[in-house]
Design brief:
Helix content: 40-55%
Number of strands: 0
Structural class: mainly alpha
Signal peptide: 1-22
Domain HscB tetracysteine metal binding motif: 39-65
Order of helices and strands: HHHHHH
Protein name: HscB mitochondrial iron-sulfur cluster cochaperone
Shape: elongated
Radius of gyration: 17 Å
Largest sheet: none
GO biological process, one term: [2Fe-2S] cluster assembly
Strand content: under 5%
GO molecular function: ATPase activator activity; protein-folding chaperone binding
Length: 143
C-alpha cells in the first residue's frame, strides 16, 4: 500500500520506518520514542549522514540524501565565514559539488534521488552566486 515513491517519501520525512512492512505509518515522534535521533537513510534505513564529509550520500548504499536547507553557504562551499573569499577556491568547490550532485548524473536513478539532486544543485547554485558577488556576500553575512 505504501510502496514506491510514497513509501520513500514517508521514510524521508521520518513517518515510516525503513525495512518494516505494514499498512500503518508511524507517528511523528516514533523515532524519538525508539531512542534514535540520528538521521537514517531514506533508501536502506541504515545510519544516514556521517558526521564528517559532505554528507550527500549514504555510507552504506551510496544513495543521495535530502539536502540540509539550513546549512550555511560558507560551510557548504568550504569557505571561511568572512567578507574576503578566495574566488578561485570558491569556483573549484562549486565545480566539485556540481560533479557530485548535478541532475544529469542521476538520470538513471530513482525519482526520489532525481528530486534530491535538483534540490542539491539549486542549493549549490544559490550558494555560489551569493558568495561570488561582493554585495550579495555582504548582505548574506549581515543577515
Amino acid at each position: 500500500m505504501w510502496g514506491g515513491r510514497t513509501g520513500a517519501l514517508l521514510r524521508v520525512w521520518g513517518l515510516w520506518p525503513a525495512g518494516v512492512r505494514g499498512r500503518r505509518p508511524l507517528g511523528c515522534n516514533a523515532a524519538s520514542l525508539a531512542g534514535n535521533n540520528s538521521p537514517q537513510c531514506w533508501n536502506c534505513g541504515g545510519p544516514g549522514v556521517p558526521k564528517r564529509g559532505d554528507g550527500f550520500f549514504c555510507p552504506q548504499c551510496r544513495a543521495l540524501q535530502p539536502p540540509d536547507l539550513t546549512r550555511d553557504y560558507f560551510s557548504l562551499m568550504d569557505c571561511n565565514r568572512a567578507f574576503a573569499v578566495d574566488t578561485a577556491k570558491l569556483q573549484n568547490r562549486y565545480q566539485q559539488l556540481q560533479r557530485l550532485v548535478h541532475p544529469d548524473f542521476f538520470s538513471q536513478r530513482s525519482q526520489t534521488e532525481k528530486d534530491f539532486s535538483e534540490k542539491h544543485a539549486t542549493l549549490v547554485n544559490d550558494a555560489y552566486k551569493t558568495l561570488l558577488a561582493p554585495l550579495s556576500r555582504g548582505l548574506y553575512l549581515v543577515s
